[in-house]
Amino acid sequence: MTPRRQRMLSVAIVVIGVAVAAGFALRAFNEDLLFFYSPSQIVAGEAPENRTFRVGGLVIDGSVEREPGSLEVRFVLTDNAHDVPVSYSGVLPDLFREGQGIIAHGQIRPDGLFVADTVLAKHDENYMPPEVAESLKEVHQRASGGET
Amino acid sequence: MIPELGHFALILALCLSLALAVFPLVGAHQGRSSWMLVARTAAAGQFVFVAFAFGCLVWAFLHNDFSVLYVATNSNSALPIPYRVAAVWGAHEGSLLLWVLILAGWTLAVATFSKNLPERMGSRVLGVLGLIMVGFLLFVLMTSNPFDRLIPAALDGNDLNPLLQDPALVIHPPILYMGYVGLSVAFAFAVAAMLEGKLDSEWARWTRPWTIVSWMFLTLGIALGSWWAYYELGWGGWWFWDPVENASFMPWLMATALIHSLAVTETRGLFKSWTLLLAIFGFSLSLLGTFLVRSGVLISVHAFASDPSRGLFILIYLAVVIGAALALFAFRAPKVTTKQGFRLLSRETFLLSNNILLVAATALILQGTLYPLFMDALALGKVSVGPPYFNSAFLAPVLPLLLLLGFGMHAAWIRQDQQSLLKRLRGVAIVALAAGVVLPWAVFDSTKLLTVIGCVLGLWVLLSSLIEPLARLRDGKRLTRGLVGMSVAHIGVAVCVLGVTITSAYNIETDLGVEPGETVTVGGYDFTFQGIRRVEGPNYSADEADVRITRDGEFVAELKPQKRVYRVQKSPMTEAGIDGRMGRDLFVALGDPLGGGAWSMRIQYKPLVRFIWIGAILMTLGGGLAASDRRYRVAVRHREREKEPVGVPAGEPA
């Protein structure tokens, strides 16, 4: 092989390799994008079924129910306009508390129950997940906008 | 009074850094020796004043000076003394001051250890470091002054975030910053070479040890962070593909590529533009990391203090630094490139693949990290990119990288004979293949394709790294530190790969509700919950469970996981109980009371998880050996003698 051909070959191998890697990565990328929906969006039916996504809101005071001795927990998330019931089985994060903003990760069932496989609460007492803060703000704006 | 002195010292340091930025660069441009002489003095003075300012902040913490806002928000009179020192870098302002201190330290180190650099080159390197310093000191003084007063003074402080009250986190930020900031030295060398319009093997020989040393700190810092997340975040994960982790991992990947590219530049005088580009990107990514962590644009488990106006400052700074460096690159890179041939099968090709694959991995991680930001900015919805993406995006380039690594170590420069390479590696390949398929099956009873691939590649790299040093020992030939360092670092990679593979495949994780006296079995171990009691710490109270672990009736360990509530911040914290052995970790984290005396617990069995961190330590060690190789120590004499042609036989470290 002439050096020129050799160079072309190596360039070709590199290009093909990178293209294949990029292809795989993009496919994985589309499958692994996690969308965020607020309780209002879920109630309005905007959230997809059979696909994992994230929901965030405030845990309603007094809504946390637990069978004694069981890991099953149920609670209700709200954005102050609409509510979504959530069920979760497992150890809750340290900062999970009623009234706290949290994010749950899972799928919605046809009957409207959100089955979470992960529950996230930020490790900071005054923390509000940005998405939750924003969806609360939106609801608030809509409410005050309606009055004036 | 002391805090004001600290503030004043910072302003003086800024004046000196301005001098350091202006005089040497202009002096080097116009050939004025007296101006260039300013560099070393200014570097030393700058370090003294920054260190003094840092000392003042430490003083304020040790003496509980709650009239300083930063101290009042991050410390408490009940905080143990070592954590008061750690609290200095527990939040934004202090950690930035630490960053500045470390940058001043690196600058001083360059000024001290580079006396053998040609005058103009040395001045330029120090001048560029001075420019970087000016930006950071302005940032500290304008947006994040740690010495701001709180009037009236607080009676007591708000305490340090409980998550940060941990020995690993006392040293994690300084070490990681040593790595981040160390990349600025490679960057400064690259910019200086472009200003100089000259880039040769000698330049690579100066730059390489600095790059390796900062890479070592990055490696160690990342490993410490992962170790901290493992036992302190409480849930036994060792890597989350969290934006902040990615922010430290991307510069590491770049630095790794840079070290290898420098090898080619040093021995063969090739890949010069690559090397320059990697040096620029490495430092840019560590600046980007700072931006991501500090601006609050990303949601992260580690993103503590954050503030958008600071983000804007860093973003502008980032744009200026990258923009200027790339513009310079566009004008000057064509000047330094050389054309020399090499065959397709040669060490050059293997190192080129290394670079391309590492850059590809970085690009894919960058895409996943920044994508949510773009989507949000364009109002296309709120998304986050999950770990599955990062896993596959990272594995796609890294698996071929590991395969090629085993070959590359044995390839000769310029051209390598195919037959002799295959002959040399045949035995190792067969052993790695056989053991990689059989061992996981034999030990754990089941296996998957990806597990087999991981084990085979891990063993392949491990065994391949051993060939050359062992052959030299057998033949009684000399072992250079460069060669041993390369082998040890690559063995570290292999150990890390094996740890990741086995832990990911055979980790058992269960959430259980257990009553006192109840025994549960996980991974062949019996965990008995013996009860719970109340314990009081210096600044927290905790529920402590007593879990006794036995295997086949024999005592293994007694773990005492805690659920702490810190008194000042009122936040609960999980302290996991871990029984760590070389071969496996047993991990118990305490959840919540479930009523009736029962508690939820997360129990995990993690085989070979320690290999991940041991691998990182080996890499660091290897880096240390390579950076202290004789050829860097005797570089002075080399330069004085007439330049001799560099002939490097196959298998010589590079």
Please give a handful of descriptors for the protein shown.
heterodimer, A: alpha+beta, 2 domains, 5-stranded mixed beta barrel, 7 strands, elongated, B: 654 residues, alpha+beta, 4-stranded antiparallel sheet, 11 strands
Describe this structure as you would to a colleague.
With 148 residues, chain A is α+β, with helices and mostly antiparallel strands. Chain A folds into two domains: 1-33; 36-147, OB fold (Dihydrolipoamide Acetyltransferase, E2P) (Beta Barrel). In chain A, 36% of the residues lie in helices and 29% in strands. Chain A has a five-stranded mixed barrel. The longest helix of chain A is centred in the first third of the chain and has 30 residues, at 3-32. Chain A starts with a helix and ends with a helix. The model of chain A has no long low-confidence stretch (mean pLDDT 79). Chain B is of the alpha+beta class. Among the domains of chain B are: 1-165, no CATH class; 508-607. Chain B is 64% helix and 12% strand. Chain B has helices at residues 2-30, 33-36, 38-62, 69-74, 81-87, 92-113, 119-143, 167-196, 201-232, 243-268, 272-295, 308-336, 347-377, 387-408, 418-444, 449-474, 481-506, 610-627, 630-633, 635-640; strands at residues 383-385, 508-514, 519-522, 525-536, 540-551, 554-559, 562-566, 572-575, 577-580, 584-595, 598-607. In chain B, the strands form two sheets. In chain B, strands 3, 4, 5, 6, 7 and 8 form a six-stranded antiparallel β-sheet that branches. Chain B has a four-stranded antiparallel β-sheet with strand order 2-11-10-9, with helices on one face. In chain B, a hairpin with a 5-residue loop joins β7 and β8. The termini of chain B are far apart. The relative contact order of chain B is 0.08. Classes of the chains: A alpha+beta (148), B alpha+beta (654). Chains A and B meet through α1 and β1 of A and α13, β1, α14, β2 and β8 of B.
